[in-house]
Structure formats: C-alpha cells, structure tokens
Amino acid sequence: MGRFVFKVPDVGEGTTEVEIVKWRVGVGDAVREDQPLVDLMTDKATVEVASPISGQIVTRYGAEGDKANVGSDLLVFEIASGEAAPTPSAPSAEPAAPPPAEPESRPAAGLARGKVLAAPAVRARAAALGVDLGSVRGTGPGGRVVHADLDALLRGGKAFVAAPDGVEEVKIFGLRRRIAQRMQESKRRIPHFTYIEEVDVTELETLRRELNASPDGRPRLTPLAFVIRAVALSLSDHAGVNAHFDDERDVVRRFRAFHPGVAAQTDDGLMVPVIRDADRLDLWRLAGEIARLSAAARAGKATPQELTGSTLTITSLGVLGGIASTPIINPPEVAIVGVGRIGPRAIVRDGAVVVREMMNLSSSFDHRIVDGYAAAIFIQAVKERLEAPATLIAAPKV
Questions:
Q1: Is 268 annotated as catalytic?
Q2: pLDDT, tens digit, for every residue of 361-370?
Q3: What is the set of domains in the chain, with CATH numbers?
Q4: In terms of CB atoms within 10 Å, which of 221, 230, 281, 304 comes out highest?
C-alpha cells in the first residue's frame, strides 16, 4: 500500500485561490478514477474536480466554505502498491510525502486560525466528517468543542451552528458568499442612479400570443426575449450604456457587440449566464438561448465561458417581478435593466379610463459614467420599441 497526495488543482483563469463549495467524498470512501471529488469555486465559476486515481480517502483538508491555495494539499489517498500514480506533469495532482500520523491536527490547507480547544477524539471525528472546528461553537468548559457540539451540527444537516435562545447561525459560503461580496462592492464603489418607466405591452402580449400559437416548432417567445431585442436595437444610438468602467485606470470600454447577462435564480443562488452577440440574434434565437442558458445554470452545468463577459445585465423575476425595483449593477458594467411583472392596470387614454397590459422597467446606471438624461432617453428608446413590437420581428443586421 502507498499514499498519494492530491493537491488543489490549477483550474485556469489565473486563479491562485479557490473556495471549497461541496465535498462529494469523505474520509474512508473508496474512490474510482474520474469520480467527482469536490466542487471548487473561483471568481468565475464552480468547477467539479474529478479523481485522477483510484484509492481510499484517508485525509481530507478543509471544510465547505473554506478557502485554499492552488497547489496546497486537498486529499490523501491510500492506493494499492501496484497502482500507477498520475505523472508529475498533471497539474491537478503531484506525489508527495506521507501525511503526519495524526492528520486531523493539521489545519486545512491555506487557512489561518487560532487554537480550537477540543479533545483528540473530537478532532479525529471532526476530521473524518470534514468539519472545520473553527466554525463550531464550543459549549464545553472554556469554549471547548465536545461531541455534543458535533452531534448538534449533524442534526442540522447543513453548515450551521446552534446559537443560544433557538437562533441558528448559518455559515454563508459558496455562491451566496460571492454574491454578497459583489453586491457590497458594487454599492460601495458605484453611485447608483435608478430610473423607472412604465411600458404599455398590450400589443406586445397580443403579438406574442399569436406568434406562439403558430405550430412551427420554434422556441416559445417570452417577454424577456422582446426586452433583450429592444435593448439591442436601442444600443445603436446609446452605446455608452453597453460598457465597462475600469475605475482604477479611469477608462471606459464601449462595446460594439452586445453580450447581455441574464440573471437566473437557481437553488444555489443568483447566476448570470451570458448570451453572446445578442444583437445578431432574432427573437426566436434569443428565446432559445435564454431557455438553454437558464436550464444550464439551474442544473449547475453552465461553463465558465457562459458565465463571464457580459456587457450589460438584464434581470427579471417574471410573475414575481413586482411593480418596481432598484437593481444593483454588476461591475464593471455601467447599467442593469430590471423587468417588472406584466399585469392589467387602469390608465387614462384620450380622457377615458381603459385597462391595458402594463410593465415597468426599473433600471440602474453608474452615475459616474451615465448621466440621468442619457439614462432616461435610453429607456425611452427601449419603451418605444416595446410599444411597437412589430419593429422587433425583423431579422437583425449581421
């Protein structure tokens, strides 16, 4: 028998640090080659890492939510003496010396923490479970972590610790932590200007129902496809909102191509897959891409390339869209268009009260780059196209 140390792999994009999002194996598990081991998150996406070798897991470093440096120890395998270890050229695994006799006393790779009080048996049990003792509230003398604390953690079924008076302390990590960090950074650095306009989509909804009733096998059109098409057409005269702002270099990068990020809610939180060259797609191809990318995001199958490179974000909660919102800009973008729900409202037309299908656009702009007037006329241009939906059917210029 021999030992093989599997290190945190280089997952590309110049990443030097990753976050452990989900362990798929535990200490004692027999693992086959190419079996999923762990999900690691970078700044760009979550990557599923497979085993380079068959063997039994004897040590696991780090708990879910911990960060680890690329190249640091991640797992230790026990392998048969005749088992061929991966070659040193493989970036995801390198042979290393056997681990210490008591690996549970060794802190997770790449982590720095104070001394946690716990008996050796508790430490061994925590290591086998993959639990970071630093995240557990000890109830023993002097804050010592005892077996009862691990039992309470296991009963919860998730990474949380029990607090006094029935309060649950939920550890935020993975995508949820990344979202929190990005939203905080966006609000801290970007002065948001939000502009809200109502749009009469009665004709749009009538046209959409007629087009969807045609049994031609094309993708079903959603209101979001019309919105993206209207934004794409409006950018020809308002290129300043299809841009990135590098506020460290004081440089604005304006894009000819339109790559909208379409916010999609998943079980793991909000993800923003990107439709490439949306300005070159007609309504049906847009609808197809929206459906494909949203399904990939919800299934956790979206690739890093499909989750990066957006030039402007469009966010919609569908029937839960509400009357108005204050969407937060996705930096380094300078604009985000929020789509409200569609519903009947009583409005005044030619001195008479009539019922129309209405929808609000709630959009935010980086006020350092986009003036209020420029933001308003851009949204007015989008509104005009949505209220004359026949103009959105024509094939885009290529």
A1: no
A2: 999 999 999 9
A3: 2-172 (2.40.50.100), 177-392 (3.30.559.10)
A4: 230
